[in-house]
Amino acid sequence: MNIRQLRYFISIVDQGSVSSAARVLHIAQPALSQHIANLEEELTTDLLVRSSRGVKPTKAGEVLYQHARKIVAQIKQATDDVRKEADTPRGEVSIVVPPMLGVHVAPLLLERITGKYPEVDLRIMEELGLRVKEMIENGRVDLGILATREQSPKAEYLHLYSEPLFLVSKRRPDDPVCNGLETVDVERLFSVPLVLSQQSHAVREMIEDAAEKWGGP
């Protein structure tokens, strides 16, 4: 006796006909009849009463039918449970973010991920932008968030959002850069001394790349 035979037997009883069950199961009727004959031989009893109007289970067949339905249902449940368990993300996931983002992003990540994936142990670290990029490329962390326009072939990137950069200066009438302007051209930007973040910061890297491209200091 095997699960296939039980499924075939259930279908025959439900359909009330071997031919109808064969159509539903997409199996040749003689082959289906042979499966049931083998089952009856193994159990040494008739399972179906055959007539011109179809088939009905015998008393022994009714007992087998009830057990078969439970067995098939339990196997399906076991399969679903195992697949669900296998599909449930679990284990440690490491994410590195720049300090300025970490203040805002870390609490949101913890809330969303632990709520949706309770089996995941989330580890959040803070590093400056270039260090974030290095840790991702070297495989030291699973994920990272950083400000960048250049994409390394050593990592996969997903754009999350864009944000503007602001040039801040003291308000004065003779301001050569910001006076009365909503946006600042790159050439004008590099006409004055700039106070930037430290060299390992991703935003500074982008500004230095722009300076090199546009001939800034």
Automatic annotation (TrEMBL):
Residue ranges of every copy of the HTH lysR-type domain listed in the record: 1-58
PANTHER family assigned to the protein according to its UniProt record, in alphabetical order: HTH-TYPE TRANSCRIPTIONAL REGULATOR YBHD, NITROGEN ASSIMILATION TRANSCRIPTIONAL ACTIVATOR-RELATED
Domain of life assignment: Bacteria
Matching InterPro entries: HTH-type_LysR_regulators (IPR050950), LysR_HTH_N (IPR000847), LysR_subst-bd (IPR005119), WH-like_DNA-bd_sf (IPR036388), WH_DNA-bd_sf (IPR036390)
PROSITE patterns in the record: HTH_LYSR (PS50931)
Protein name: HTH-type transcriptional regulator CynR
Family affiliation: Belongs to the LysR transcriptional regulatory family.
Entry keywords, A to Z: DNA-binding, Transcription, Transcription regulation
GO MF, one annotated term: DNA-binding transcription factor activity
Any one of the GO CC terms: cytosol
